[in-house]
Specification:
Aspartate Aminotransferase, domain 2; Aspartate Aminotransferase, domain 1; single chain; about 35% helix; 2 domains; about 475 residues
């Protein structure tokens, strides 16, 4: 049903029902009872319960890559559910999961040819890390289990994936401490040490990784996990050459390299996976989710190299079994959705559109650098971030902190744009079917939303931008 065909809704009644829902990142002392209720979507737009059409700036949550209302994907899901809605992944392969695994292996870099299906980014990260533990146990290296991650990284909400995430605020009220997890610096050029150029910063970061491996012991460090671009950490784009140099360090010390492409995969940077074509690396494992089905239904994948699989194969006498799996691993309806999603990508040239319009989005966002509250504008492909500060000179955050991004989002929604607020940042990751005109609209509305927020802050005596 198209947004224009939706019937009336009792918004107050719906919000009352919604009080029974525990939302992610919920504050129970100040629950948010004014969230925008969405009821429809088509292409790059969503429609709220009051009939307002909004440009979907965040693309759902980095995930609606093919766009909303894709009949091809919906039909594929319905057809598969009608034919075979479920079977146990332990016992019975299905055509959709087999076809999808072959197709993912074909577009993955290097020798990454083995696909384990999970249900979302978090469970995929957990599964990838558990595979590393399994791998080293089979090879007789039970101590080689330590994990290196980075501050500002986000890898998920299950216990293990949350433990390797480096966003400090996400850990304030939950226990995620593991003594086998170690963190190194965020590769954020905007926050690099004063007086250090980006090339020196890159060398500093790579040296820090190697120093951490040597400090813990190369015989104990099993894996380094890294998002090519730190998405939920604020779209942090590491310095050029960073990932290739980090992979070199990992190779020298026999450390597995996991590329967490939950966000950057499936076209966000204009390619099926960004590791090889954008960052010049062939990792040992790639984690994929979000755009894999364009958010139509949960599905994720762990893609593992031949090298790792062969090292733990041929071990039947010892009975080494990778005892990791989920009831909905390789769910046939989810896999059918992913296959249809890939068909849409190919038939409509969505990867090509992302490669063409990604630079344009970055150029347009840079036009907002004259706004005094905007400290940094960063991004790559069809993902971008504006970081708001008290002043461009000090780079210090505003005292309002969490409210800044939310205020900008509220003003933008009134003007026809959804923004994803992350504390003092505004994040953009529109569907890959976005047009040049829609990028112009996004930038225009975002500017006005920031201007209105600045006026509010000055009127309330919170900040001065004169």
């Amino acid at each position: 049903m198209k947004p224009s065909q939706l019937g009336a809704v009792d918004l107050a009644a719906l919000r009352k029902m919604d009080t029974h829902v525990v939302h992610p990142w919920e504050s129970f002392d100040k629950p948010n009872s004014s969230r925008t209720v969405l009821r429809g979507g088509e292409g790059s737009y969503v429609t709220d319960a009051q009939g307002n059409r909004l440009l979907d700036g965040p693309g759902g949550m980095w995930c609606v890559n093919a766009g909303h209302g894709r009949r091809e994907i919906v039909k594929a899901m319905a057809d598969q559910a009608g034919q075979l809605s479920y079977t146990s992944p332990w016992s019975h392969p299905t055509e959709p999961s087999a076809r999808l695994a072959e197709r993912l292996a074909a577009v993955a870099p290097g020798d990454l040819n083995h696909v384990f299906f999970a249900t979302g980014g978090s469970t995929a990260v957990d599964s990838a890390l558990r595979f590393v533990m399994f791998y080293n146990n089979v090879l007789g290296r039970p101590e080689k289990k330590h994990i290196i991650s980075r501050y500002d990284a986000y890898h998920g909400s299950t216990y293990l994936s949350a433990a390797v995430s480096g966003k400090s605020r996400d850990k304030n009220w939950l226990d995620t401490q593991l003594d086998t997890v170690h963190f190194i610096s965020s590769p954020n050029p905007y926050r690099r040490p004063e007086g250090m150029d980006t090339d020196s910063f890159c060398r500093h970061l790579v040296d820090e990784l190697e120093a951490k491996i040597l400090e813990v012991g190369a015989d104990k460090v099993g894996v380094f996990i890294a998002e090519p671009i730190l998405a939920s950490g604020g779209v942090i784009v590491p310095p050029k050459g960073y990932h290739a140099a980090c992979l070199g360090v990992c190779r020298r010390h026999d450390v597995i390299y996991i590329s967490d492409e939950v966000v950057t995969g499936f076209g966000r940077l204009g390619h099926w996976y960004a590791s090889e074509p954008v960052f010049d690396i062939t990792p040992d494992i790639i984690v994929s989710a979000k755009g894999l089905t364009s958010g139509y239904i949960p599905l994720s994948a762990v893609i593992i190299s031949d090298r790792l699989i062969q090292a733990v194969g041929g071990d039947s006498e010892r009975g080494a079994v990778f005892s990791n799996g989920f009831t909905y691993s390789g769910h046939p309806v989810s896999c059918a959705a992913a296959l249809a999603n890939m068909d849409v990508f190919e038939s409509e040239g969505l990867l090509e559109n992302a490669r063409e319009l990604g630079p344009y989005l970055q150029e347009q966002l840079q036009t907002l650098s004259d706004l005094p509250i905007v400290g940094d504008i960063r991004g790559q492909g069809l993902m971008g971030c504006l970081e708001c500060v008290a002043s461009q000179e000090s780079r210090q955050p505003l005292t309002l902190d969490y409210e800044v991004g939310s205020r900008i989002d509220a003003h933008c929604q009134a003007l026809g744009l959804l923004v994803r607020p992350l504390i003092n940042m505004c994040v953009m990751s529109p569907p890959l079917c976005v047009t040049r005109q829609q990028i112009d609209d996004l930038t225009r509305i975002l500017r006005e939303g920031i201007v209105r927020t600045m006026a509010d802050l000055e009127k309330e005596g919170i900040a001065s931008f004169g």
